[in-house]
Design a protein that fits this description.
2 copies of one chain form a homodimer. Chain A has 349 residues and is an alpha/beta fold. The first copy, chain A, folds into 3 domains: 44 residues, no CATH class; 126 residues, Rossmann fold (3-Layer(aba) Sandwich); 142 residues, Rossmann fold. Chain A has 13 helices and 12 strands. In chain A, the strands form 3 sheets. A 6-stranded mixed β-sheet of chain A has the order 7-6-8-9-10-12, with helices on both faces. In chain A, strands 2-1-3-4 form a 4-stranded parallel β-sheet, with helices on both faces. In chain A, strands 5-11 form a two-stranded parallel sheet. In chain A, helix 1 crosses helix 2 and helix 5 packs across helix 12. Chain A is elongated, with a radius of gyration of 27 Å. Chains A and B meet through helix 4, helix 5, strand 2, helix 6 and helix 11 of A and helix 4, helix 5, strand 2, helix 6 and helix 11 of B. The first copy, chain A, binds a DNA duplex (16 and 16 nucleotides) through helix 2 and helix 4.
Chain lengths: 349, 349
DNA sequence: CTGAAAGCGCTTACAG
DNA sequence: CTGAAAGCGCTTACAG
């Protein structure tokens, strides 16, 4: 005997009302082949009994589970909450559930995570791929969120444009020498952001790149980044490619007795949870995750609903990049006149 | 016509092998009522065809979906990644999927989230409740992760003991006056942590409580916490009840030119992503989320597998509190001799 | 050891 | 407008 569900089913409603299950089904689904009078009576009775449709029955019959998968490279990434929240919200609005899968670890784990979701019968999935992973079409529609310059990307923040906004902001404040601080040189997202910054520098501005992972390979994990020296060399702006790196830079500078933003400016990306909380609050460029999620989900659902059979395709959206928004807070300010000028100023006093 | 699934089903394997579906089912489920020889042949053929069992069919027949729900008060909470990762891992190990539900917003949203999961047919769920929410038994087993002093809690970190560890650590470093920094006075977790700290203070130590939310009600959100003044008053240790508050304290102190840990110590809770990254790295007390998740999931599954019918109960575990682990990093150090003593010392020189 | 059959709850052509 | 029937894919008593 199958373990029985607690609540009533269509058949119980039907017999108790003296009608057929087909009619009850039609009435509740509102497909309209039932007289409004009867339909109303059925809906009322169903509500009264606390009827909850069986997803299993429906899924078996329709071939659709009503569930989407969300594959993340590493849930521990602080970006995850925003993504998950946005995806869950977009899915919920379309009456879909979201099954999470973490592919922490290598690419193999990512493939396994995807397979597990398929075994669970998801109708489609949203994948935020690991660095440099190419998502191959599997056996359900897939939306990829990475960066527009990654082939096969469905939709993402316009990281390049975000970088340009940071550059324009720093240019406007009079900064000349920018240290760009990234974590991993293989990240498409970070490279796009860095490229955007460089491309947005005004005349007379220059930049240098610092990859933390490379530094740590020689100096050990958790090492100082040597930012005080960089400041002494004349860098006045530290543009991190993520708020986590920005936080690292900010606290290192503060610890070295360098005042932010009086002495130097620090900026980040992503507007993570702590950005408005630290002192000074972080200037950062924020992704519009709600919009990205909305686009990804609607592209996904369009494909799911159109294709009768469950084809494995990477879906595309009309808009594949969503502008980032610059959020100016206290961690960035006007560039102090460089040493030489300061001297001039003092002479002039 | 129901939209057909792409892959083969039991019936296809059966006919292609000239046996019955029942035998194929038995062979694949390994229930052993099939000769090993035939079973092997069937397994081989199934693998060859790339057979993936239909969750829908199985769920409809067995009354179990193989999916658990995870209800979070607010996915944006930085603790979420750790919880989600741990729960997903524990569930995956038991061959269950995890459906997420965010109850951001009020208590109503939490109830709705729970209902939505039930409609999706979860076999059980893990709930991390909103502050001061009492989870009432719904129509499936529920495991609650909050704090041991919350009635109806299934399992949680021993926040009180975590607080005691922090207190012992600060006592050992010679600190006398501790400022405990919390966010919300209604949080059970924060109250337990604060209580633990107070109860763990050694002779001659004293503490004062600072609730940020209260301060912000008058001084506005994002206001300074006035920690420099507290330091001047003689507080040498700032024990935040979460790493987010610890980060806020740390950066405010640094901005005010107070050196951590040379002048004062800062500690946090939860070992969040940035704790090892900031300078100085944060001393913190970490929850063993893996163990908590394991206990919650296994208690949940035990109830699910035992109860034939899907009763709505809050499950209990033998162990309801898991010790926290103190992680000592550079943000805490020996208390500097207080002013009076310093003078003595100078006289003695 | 193996198979025929029932049935989980639903939706959807089809017939009336 | 309403109903009888088939069937989605699976598991599980039951019979042989």
């Amino acid at each position: 005997m199958a373990s029985s569900r607690p609540g009533p089913n269509l058949s119980r409603i039907a017999t108790s009302l003296g009608v057929s299950v087909a009619t009850v089904s039609n009435a509740l689904s509102g497909k309209g082949r039932v007289s409004e009078q009867l339909a109303e009576k059925i809906r009322e009775h169903a509500a009264e009994l606390g009827y909850i449709p069986s997803q299993a029955g429906r899924a078996l019959r329709t071939g659709r589970s009503g569930v989407l998968g969300l594959v993340l490279p590493d849930i521990a990434n602080p970006l995850f909450p925003k993504i998950a929240q946005a995806i869950e919200f977009a899915a919920k609005s379309a009456d879909y559930g979201v099954l999470i899968a973490d592919s922490r670890g290598d690419v193999t784990a990512q493939t396994e995570a995807i397979n597990r979701l398929i075994e669970r019968g998801v109708d489609g999935m949203v994948v935020v791929p690991r660095r440099a992973t190419r998502i191959s079409a599997s056996s359900c529609p897939v939306a990829v969120i990475d960066t527009a310059s990654t082939p096969g990307n469905t939709v993402a923040a316009d990281h390049w444009q975000g970088g340009q906004q940071i550059a324009a902001h720093l240019a406007g404040l009079g900064h000349k020498r920018i240290l760009i601080i990234g974590n991993n040189p293989e990240s498409n997202v970070q490279n796009d952001r860095a490229g955007g910054i460089r491309s947005g520098l005004a005349k007379g501005m220059s930049s240098e790149m610092l990859w933390i992972e490379r530094l740590e390979q020689t100096a050990g994990p958790g090492c100082r980044l040597g930012l005080a020296r960089k400041a002494a060399e004349g860098f006045t702006a530290f543009a991190a490619l993520s708020d986590l790196q920005a936080l690292r830079a900010l606290t290192e500078l503060q610890q070295e007795g360098i005042n932010v933003p009086a002495d130097v400016s620090v900026t980040g990306f992503d507007d993570l949870i702590w950005s408005p909380v630290v002192t000074p609050a972080l200037t950062t460029a924020r992704m519009d995750m709600d919009r990205i999620a909305e686009i990804a989900i609607s592209a996904l659902l369009k494909t799911i609903l159109e294709s009768g059979t469950r084809e494995g395709v990477i879906v595309t959206a009309e808009t594949d990049r969503v502008p980032m928004q610059l959020i100016v807070r206290q961690s960035s300010g006007p560039a102090r006149p460089a040493k030489e000028n300061l001297t001039d100023g003092e002479l002039a006093t």
